[in-house]
Amino acid sequence: MIATARRRTISDGLNGFTIEQLCEEVGVSRRTFFNHFASKEDVVLGIELGVEDGLVTAFAAGTAVDPDLAPIDAAVALAIEHLHVVGLDRGEESLMRDVLDREPSLVARFVSATDRQMELVGDALRSRFGWTDPTDDRGRLVAEIVGALLKATAWRFFADEDGPPFEDILRTNFRLVTAMATSDGATVPTSTPLGAAHSTNELEHTP
Q1: Exposure string (b/e) for 62-98, b if CB count within 10 Å is 16 or more?
Q2: pTM score, two decimals?
């Protein structure tokens, strides 16, 4: 359904087809559609209802990504795992660029979806790292930092049709931020810091 919605958007524009026409083309009911997607924009972007719930729940429980990762590292690793869950591969990336070239307004919808996801991640971080004090803002702060990284990555990714995959841009942006936070930023590390919990050790696992 997602691939069909994207192809229809590229050929006809977002307003060039209805949800009913999309459902008929792929052979599902309108009810089935709304069991999985909140809107036509969401199906085009691949934002499926509840698709990340199990991943976020596992993350909150201390799994899903390396349990030894520090908070910011863990949240970035979670974002990368989410990309794997939704299946954003090179072919899909190319198709998405064509979609957003036809309908640039969908970039803002993508960014808005990131905001909502980061609220869930903030709650999951509090559970994962035991930040139970209601005045402890570390979960929200980490989520905001990673959300900003994802937004910057999205704008770069969608603006450059010949650029690298989304995951690669995200990893590069994370390395840049980490380098600037731990030095004068003049030297950018060439290896990903996601396997090294020490890169954000100023955030301990306990309040």
Answers
A1: eebbeeebbbbbbbbbbbbbbeeebebeeebbebbbe
A2: 0.69
